[in-house]
Amino acid sequence: MANSKFGVNISGYINKQFGLGAGVRANINSIKTTSIPFAINDFNIKISEHIKEDFKSAIEVSEKNPYNINLVQINIDRLHSVVQDVDNSYFKNKYNIAFWAWELENFPEESKIFFTLFNEIWVPSNFCTEAISKVSPVPVIKIMHAIDIEKPRFNRVDFGLPEEKFIFLTMFDYYSSMTRKNPLGSIDAYEKTFGINNKDVLLVIKSSLSKEFPKEKKELTDRIGDNRSIIIIEEILEENKLFSLINCCDCFVSLHRSEGFGLTMAEAMFLGKPVIGTAYSANIEFMTINNSFLVKYDLIDTGNNYLFVGGKSVWADPDISHAAELMKFVVENPEEAIKIAKKGQYFVKQNLNPKKIGEKIEARLNFINQEFCNNINVENSKAEEYLRFENQLLQQKIDKMKTLFGVQIKLKFKNLQNKIRGRNRKYFWE
């Protein structure tokens, strides 16, 4: 690394229209406010065909990673694919940083092998820091997402929304778990306050495309039933149109069970909207009783409802009655609700703007360059660690394969033959 140029190579879902894509673009916008040289790499990660490219705000990418620091903004569920598809020279002789968001208090055992590949981990919240640092052998650094929204260009008529009604908006992505995002909780609270087919209010549920999630979509539509004061907008919207939809609502609602950051809540606050949200996980780092409407909750076991955890963690069960009271309050006290929303808007614009986040990134990258990137021992050891990581990844696949019923039968038959014949033969993959 001693001869590499100082700067950062950024990789991730560069132009994808979903939360993790927005997260990497937020970091790019923050780095643009600094003097740090950067290159943008796209691993062309294979994800669902229903997650679209945002061509209108497309960011130019490079085939090379010329700088001495890599910032890899790929979550743990897709890192296997990245490591398999990307030449290992991308990581060698670099100071490698992973940017991860994690939504639960415990980090999954299956993902610990990825620490081998990175010198440090960046996360968007203290909530993520506490979850990951419990098991991380490398530093875990908080770099919050920057929020900066251009003036929304679309209004209610563009979405076919009524001008005269008070509109609540909740949003979720099927790929981020409908159970975790909990739109059903928002429906429960809404109907508890306003009943069925209320002519004065409207609940809009914005979702990603449901083609790969028919069971979850049916659960949602069955829950809505014949309530005509609840509508679903199932569409992939380009960035300004998505922010315009948030801007069209009178109140944003998120009765989530857990968040690694809570991007949509922060975006709604930036736009000056009253935000009702569960008072649990990362969003309480920018949502307070002074600038938003926090919902009481109980902690419950996740069960087998979330990626990797297998019932080994907890999350929030928001208090539906309390959420209903807050919904009623913002409708009946619009001036007070806006006053609180303005405090939220001020907080987000002051603390989560690209320049302020960029200063933190610049300070950290300068420190890394000065303290680590001229250390030849670090350079040599990372090449060895990459090989160790590949071996661990292969061993993990073998261990998983051994749990399959057919493979277990073969192993038992082989062991029986060895015992009878006094041999110690093994399959080549053991």
Automatic annotation (TrEMBL):
Molecular-function annotations in GO: glycosyltransferase activity
Name used for this protein in its record: Glycosyl transferases group 1
InterPro entries given in the database record: Glyco_trans_1
Record-linked SUPFAM superfamilies: UDP-Glycosyltransferase/glycogen phosphorylase
Keyword terms, alphabetized: Transferase
Source domain of life: Bacteria
Record-annotated Glycosyl transferase family domain positions: 179-287
Signal peptide (residue range): none
Keyword Transferase applies: yes
